[in-house]
C-alpha cells in the first residue's frame, strides 16, 4: 500500500465532509489493492436521511488510488422515492457532503471552481431539477461573478439585526454561501422577529421564510406594516397565485421526482 496515497485520500475524504470515521475502512481496502472499491457514509439532516457511496478506483499505471466521486441518496421524511445525485471530485474545491445535501434541497452554494485551463473562478451553483443527463444526474447551473449577484448588497435591503455586527454579518454570509437555510433576526416595528433566509442567485435576491417555514413574498415587503389579520387575509386569498411563483424557491424536489420517473422510462 502506498502510504502517501493513503494520507492524501484520508484528508480528501475528511475535508469533503465525511469526517474521520472511514479511515480504517479506507486503509483496509487500499491494502487489498483491488481495482475498485466503495465506502458508505450515513448522515441525518433533521428528519431527512442521506446515504453517500464513495467511489474509489486504482490507477492502471501505478499503485495510486483515486477518490473519483460519491453518490448521494436522499430520503426525505415525507417522500416515498429517494432523490439521487452523483458529485464528482475535482482538483479544485469539492462540493462537501453538507453542500450536496443543500443542493439536493434546492438551495444554492457558492464555490471557488477550476475550469479546464486550471484557472480558479467563483460561482454560485444550483441544481436544475428540470434537466438530467442519461444517467439521471441533474444539471448544476452556475451563476458566475459577472452574473451580477451580490449577496451582501442583497442582504442590506432587509432589516436584519445580524448585519449591524461585522462578525455576525460575516458568519451569516459564510453560512448562506454554503447553501444553508440560515436563521436571522428581522427588525419590524420595534419588534424582533426570527425568520429564515437562503440565497437565491438566479433571481438576485434572498428567499425568506417565517417561523413555520412558510415562504414570504419579498416583492410585497412594503406591505409588512399591515396588521396580522390583513396579512393573513391576503395570504389566504392569493394562496393559489403564490403557488405558481414557487419555481424560484427550494421546493423543487417534487419536480425532481417527476423528472426522475420520466428519465427512467426513457432509458
Verbal overview:
With 267 residues, the protein is an alpha+beta fold. It folds into two domains: 95 residues, no CATH class; 94 residues, no CATH class. The chain contains eight helices and eleven strands. It has a four-stranded antiparallel sheet with strand order 1-2-3-4. Strands 8-9-10-11 form a four-stranded antiparallel sheet. The radius of gyration is 21 Å and the shape is elongated. It starts with a helix and ends with a helix. The C terminus is likely disordered. This is DUF3945 domain-containing protein.
Could you list some keywords that capture this structure?
267 residues, alpha+beta, 2 domains, disordered C terminus
Q: Separation of termini?
A: 40 Å
Beta-strand portion reads 25-35%
Question: What fraction, in percent, of the residue positions are helical?
Answer: 25-40%
Structural class: alpha+beta
Protein name: DUF3945 domain-containing protein
Region (Disordered): 217-267
Organism: Flavobacterium omnivorum
Biased composition (Basic residues): 256-267
Q: What's the layout of helices and strands?
A:
Elements: H1 3-18, H2 23-32, E1 36-45, E2 48-58, E3 65-75, E4 83-88, H3 97-104, E5 108-114, E6 120-132, E7 138-144, H4 151-155, H5 166-177, E8 182-188, E9 191-200, E10 205-209, E11 215-216, H6 228-237, H7 239-244, H8 253-266
